[in-house]
Amino acid sequence: xxxxxxxxxxxxxxxxxxxxxxxxxxxxxxxxxxxxxxxxxxxxxxxxxxxxxxxxxxxxxxxxxxxxxxxxxxxxxxxxxxxxxxxxxxxxxxxxxxxxxxxxxxxxxxxxxxxxxxxxxxxxxxxxxxxxxxxxxxxxxxxxxxxxxxxxxxxxxxxxxxxxxxxxxxxxxxxxxxxxxxxxxxxxxxxxxxxxxxxxxxxxxxxxxxxxxxxxxxxxxxxxxxxxxxxxxxxxxxxxxxxxxxxxxxxxxxxxxxxxxxxxxxxxxxxxxxxxxxxxxxxxxxxxxxxxxxxxxxxxxxxxxxxxxxxxxxxxxxxxxxxxxxxxxxxxxxxxxxxxxxxxxxxxxxxxxxxxxxxxxxxxxxxxx
Length: 369
Known about the structure:
This protein is mainly alpha-helical. The chain is built from 18 helices and no strands. α2 runs antiparallel to α5 and α12 runs parallel beside α15.
């Protein structure tokens, strides 16, 4: 089977299309999370429309509030499918694709924060300006979503390097790449499919992959439990009143997103790339010291210290995420890398869910905070 596939998609001696593949993965990362980050970045609009005393005097109404909650839930389901599918897809390709995809995820946050600041400034003094700015902002975000659909459907699968890695994964027994190869004009012959069934039975089970990578999975879970327990809810609820006024939460969100983006490119400097599994776990657990730092800074510190803490939160979030995601799939066959990519995203999203849930703890006793 390997020979049959290799004849249709030869091993590229110089990995043709690698630069384009890195760029497309970056755009796909940006587009896959731009809708979610859009919702986070217009938090000031939601807080104006649905104040905390919603049940008694919410300006937006309980029906509208429930409707928006439902839409946000749909975004979450879509995001889980897209991230799980994309990470599983590129997990058996070169590490640069994974790093670029997660760089794009962070770039979506930086982009949406920048656009939100621009639209807020442009419409701040106009009639119904907050709503107009949000509508323009969401329209721009929707454009990137459609761009990603076109890139993934018509450009990405036809890159020589992508054909090579998908053919290699098929040769190792992966059954999930058949449709992708067909879209690129590469078919798997019946005898190849029978061979695939044999190789598929030789791959590690999902349970084995979980147990062998439990530290990586816990790393991702804990990284995002901490991050989402602070960002963005705490930044809107518990940071007090400062000179920046209504701009303050938006500036904090923007600083987090910018430094999250920077952190995802820091591992490209090999001398400071963190490869040790023990080192990753120690660094992940050490981030929990940020919880008392945020609490006392919000209570006693000024806006400069808060901006510093938020920046550090973003930097460490991006840095640790990329280190884990690029290190974990190494040493496995294509089908195992594909499955492991899905598992890593599962733990990442579980961390996000837990963090958002724990985020509510910050508002306990908020009246005297």
